[in-house]
Every structure is written in structure tokens, then in C-alpha cells.
């Protein structure tokens, strides 16, 4: 089904090239931006005329890795010796800022480091598509989520004016995520913070801003200080009636999972939110229990595999740190 959908969308997409700025939906967007935000019409016309619609972007968003890779393959992609070594080096270099972010927000340094490692390989991979092209393509030539991406395009143009971003050159992911933290434009405007005190929120050039912003994003989405993220689990008996893997956020409780035969260690009350996680490991099913903070990580990327990779990568890097001086 997914392969058929990707092919159908590719056939429906226009050839790569300039977006038709004379289209009714594009003109309506421009008019709305002028009415709501007072944008200059000539500037908006130039921006939209410069936007390129790229079928490759539609192909990529139709088959995200989280939807097509088994866990063991997905994990190997992120938990490589090179990425782990880079993470250790990054943590040592930014130890003070990571500690400050953890102290201020309660978000552990290993989670921040895990996110930055998975998102951009600690700044090495930040995307190769122009953000303008990515958002315009998805806003006007990807009907399944056009409303969402049209809103993100609106937020991006507002961000351009607020943060002195070069609309013509700034690059990001195929979905329009930007900078070392890979924030979407709405998240950038809402959750990015000035971590270095220079009165700018620079998620491209300031690691202090990036670290503080990732921590702030998770804190604003409900991170609970001192609570666990996930833990290994096993079944008391081979088949457990009523125990089915959750989709994203915790949909059960610690007590309910234990009552259904899942065995795990967690210093949480029976009423605490919990999620049964079952993924395909290298040698068979891999079971875990995820908790409230696991669900918060999925707010960054709506995928159980992503949250597992973030947690495992961050913990692995943490285990290899030399003692603090």
C-alpha cells in the first residue's frame, strides 16, 4: 500500500521546476499573508516565484525510514561507532552547557545528546533541500498534508523576518526542518531560546542556543524531572492476553502492563502512564516498557523507533564519558 501511494503521488506531482506562482492556491496564500501579517506584496511575489517544486521531496516524505525499517536496521543506522565517538566528543566539549540545561529544565543531558546525534549527527547533517522549496512543495503539491505545511510555510516566512534568515539560501530536511536541532518553523518560533545571551536564537551557529532550545522544547511538552524514559522488559509467560504494543504516547499504566504479564523494573506508582514496546531486534522480539517521558520524546519525531534510538544513543554515549575534571 505504501509503495503504491508513493508511486501515485510521484505520478501526480509536477515536474521539478519553478512553482507556478499564478496558481489560485498560491495567490490565495500570498493574499492571506498580506492580510494577516502585512507582508510586502512585491517581496512575497519574488519569494514564491523563486520557490521550486521537487517530486523527490514528495517521494521521501511518503516513505520515511521510521515507517519502512525494522528496529534492528534503524538502530544500526544511528548507533554507529563514528556517531557514538562524535557524541562523546560533543558531550565533553559542551559539558557545562548540557549540565546547565539539565539543571534548568530537568531534561537529562543524555536525552539532549541523543536527539542531536539522531537529528543531525551533531551538526554534520542538517539537510540538503532549500527550506523554501521543501515547504512550498509540500504546501501546494502534497494534498495529504497540505494544510499543515502551508501553516509551516507561513511560520517560516515570519521567522525569516524575525531572525534575519536568508529565505533564498537556508537549507534543511525534505520536510523543512532546520538547523542543528532540526526544528520546524513553528517550533523554532515557539520553543527556540537564546542560550548564549547574544539576544538571538541561532539554531545554525550557536550550540548554546541549540542545546537550550532542545531542552526547552521537551520541557514545554511536559518533561517530568527525575522520571525514567524506558526500561527493558520481559513476559512472565510466552503469550500475554490483552498486551498489545502502543502506537506513540503511553496508552496504559505501569500496573496494567504488569497485570497483563509484562515484567520490568521501574520506581513508579501503578497509576503512572506506560507503554508496551515490542520491536524486531537482531535475534528476535525486543520488549520494553516506555513511560511518560518516552512519549515526550515522540513529540520531537512521531515514532517509537526514533524515541528508542534517541534513548539508546544517549545512554551509550553517556556510558563512555571520562570522569569530569
In brief, what are we looking at here?
This protein is an alpha+beta fold and 325 residues long. Helix content is 52%, strand content 10%.
CATH superfamily of the domain at 2-63 and 127-178: Bacterial muramidase
What is the gyration radius calculated from CA atoms? 21 Å
The CATH C-level name of the domain at 2-63 and 127-178 is: Mainly Alpha
Total count of strands: 10
Low-pLDDT runs? 1-14
Structure in words:
The termini are far apart. The N terminus is likely disordered. Helix 6 packs across helix 16, helix 8 runs parallel beside helix 13 and helix 10 packs antiparallel against helix 11. Among the domains are: 114 residues, Helicase, Ruva Protein, domain 3 (Orthogonal Bundle); 69 residues, no CATH class. It is built from 16 helices and 10 strands. Helices cover 52% and strands 10% of the residues. The strands form 4 sheets. Strands 5-10-9-7 form a 4-stranded antiparallel beta sheet. Strands 1-2 form a two-stranded antiparallel sheet. A two-stranded antiparallel sheet has the order 3-4. It is an alpha+beta fold and 325 residues long.
Write the layout of secondary structure elements.
Layout: H1 2-12, E1 17-18, H2 24-37, H3 41-50, E2 52-53, H4 55-62, H5 65-68, H6 71-78, H7 81-93, H8 95-105, H9 109-120, E3 129-130, H10 131-141, H11 146-163, E4 171-172, H12 185-191, H13 207-220, E5 230-232, E6 234-235, E7 252-253, H14 254-259, E8 262-263, E9 273-281, E10 284-291, H15 292-297, H16 304-319
Antiparallel strand pairs: 1-2, 3-4, 5-10, 6-8, 7-9, 9-10
Amino acid at each position: 500500500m505504501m509503495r503504491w501511494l508513493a508511486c501515485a503521488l510521484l505520478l501526480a506531482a509536477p515536474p521539478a521546476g519553478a512553482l507556478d506562482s499564478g496558481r489560485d492556491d498560491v495567490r490565495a496564500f500570498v493574499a492571506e499573508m498580506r492580510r494577516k501579517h502585512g507582508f510586502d506584496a512585491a517581496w512575497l511575489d519574488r519569494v514564491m516565484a523563486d520557490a521550486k517544486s521537487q517530486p523527490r521531496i514528495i517521494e521521501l516524505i511518503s516513505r520515511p525510514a521510521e515507517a519502512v525499517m525494522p528496529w534492528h536496521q534503524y538502530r544500526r543506522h544511528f548507533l554507529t561507532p563514528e556517531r557514538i565517538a562524535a557524541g562523546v566528543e560533543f558531550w565533553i566539549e559542551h559539558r557545562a552547557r548540557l549540565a546547565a540545561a539539565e539543571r534548568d529544565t530537568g531534561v537529562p543531558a543524555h536525552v539532549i545528546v541523543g536527539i542531536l546525534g539522531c537529528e543531525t549527527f551533531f551538526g554534520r547533517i542538517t539537510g540538503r533541500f532549500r527550506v523554501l522549496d521543501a515547504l512550498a512543495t509540500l504546501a501546494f503539491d502534497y494534498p495529504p498534508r497540505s494544510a499543515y505545511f502551508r501553516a509551516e510555510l507561513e511560520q517560516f516566512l515570519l521567522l525569516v523576518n524575525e531572525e534575519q534568515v536568508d529565505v533564498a539560501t537556508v537549507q534543511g530536511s525534505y520536510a523543512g526542518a532546520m538547523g542543528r536541532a532540526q526544528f520546524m518553523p513553528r517550533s523554532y518560533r515557539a520553543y527556540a531560546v537564546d542560550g548564549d545571551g547574544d539576544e538571538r536564537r541561532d539554531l545554525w551557529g550557536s550550540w548554546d542556543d541549540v542545546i537550550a532550545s532542545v531542552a526547552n522544547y521537551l520541557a514545554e511538552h511536559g518533561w517530568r524531572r527525575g522520571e525514567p524514559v524506558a526500561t527493558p522488559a520481559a513476559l512472565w509467560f510466552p503469550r500475554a492476553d490483552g498486551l498489545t504494543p502502543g502506537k506513540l504516547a503511553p496508552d496504559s499504566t505501569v500496573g496494567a502492563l504488569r497485570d497483563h504479564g509484562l515484567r520490568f523494573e521501574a520506581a513508579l506508582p501503578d497509576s503512572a502512564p506506560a507503554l508496551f514496546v515490542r520491536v524486531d531486534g537482531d535475534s528476535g522480539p525486543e520488549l520494553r516498557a516506555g513511560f511518560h517521558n518516552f512519549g515526550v520524546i515522540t513529540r520531537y519525531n512521531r515514532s517509537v523507533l526514533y524515541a528508542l534510538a534517541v534513548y539508546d544513543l544517549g545512554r551509550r554515549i553517556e556510558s563512555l564519558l571520562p570522569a569530569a575534571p
